[in-house]
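Work Package 3 (structural annotation) set out to generate three-dimensional models for the target panel prioritized at the project kickoff. During this period the team completed the workflow that converts sequence records into discrete structure tokens, so that structures can be stored uniformly alongside our sequence database. As a representative example, we reproduce one entry of 299 residues exactly as it appears in the project archive.
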Amino acid sequence: MRDSSNIPAWALELALVVTTIIWGGAFVVLKGALDAVSPGWLLAARFFLAGAILAAVFWRRLRDNLDGSHLVAGLMVGLPEGLAFLIQNVGLTDTTPGRNALLTATYCVMVPFVDWLVQRRRPGANNLVAAFMCLVGVGLVSLRGDLSPWLSGGDWLTLLSALFFALNIVAVGRYGSAHDSVTLTIVMFFVSSAVSLAYALAREPLPHALDLGADFWLQLAYLVVLASVVALLIQNVAQKKVDPSRAALLLSLESVFAMLFSVLLYGEPLTPQLALGFVLVFSAVLVSELAGGRGKGRA
């Protein structure tokens, strides 16, 4: 992985913004890919290919670091990660890309409370404020045009996936510092692929590769190469030099781009209550992240 010491800070910050654009666009790309392949098979392929590419690029690093401890840590990190993506993608089949991205972003607000349960570290006052803002924002998002409350099954699943994303963040915080980040990420990808494959074998019909059109293969390439491998490498390189709070602020733009792409490319209607709910949830993410310096893409 390239050393970031000679790269200007502004260039690394710009690279992080590019990463959020990639992740934001991934929600719309995912929606299109899920029209062709069911969530379990899609994620099994995505994570397996991403892990294989990283293993090929960093095979020497993998050879030197892979041991029982990395396998156990990768399992502890990969299980909640795989379940989070699987539940999120199943939810995406019954909601819009913008709502999926917005509700997924609530994991940032959940992390301090999950960390409280696991590590016994009490949330700060900013976390309580962020949680209240987030609840109000989700409540606004749930309103129909006639202002009656409603969340689809996909919306509820997305909120559940946010909880598993929060569990993953806490697990990374617990196991990440004692292990090589690239090796841990590769193991995590393969564990996540196995979780998705198990679900696919149990619940989904086997897709016929010959029946898939060119659009699907382009969408899969985007998800594997850009949204998984390239974006992850950019993030790992940039965050070695960019201040954590600054990085968290930049990475939280993911939900902004996801909503923008969903409105422009997917045709999602932007109602006043959805817009206000988006502002509140995004503000809650900022209040929570700027104090803790957490940031990680979730598409």
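The mean pLDDT is 86.
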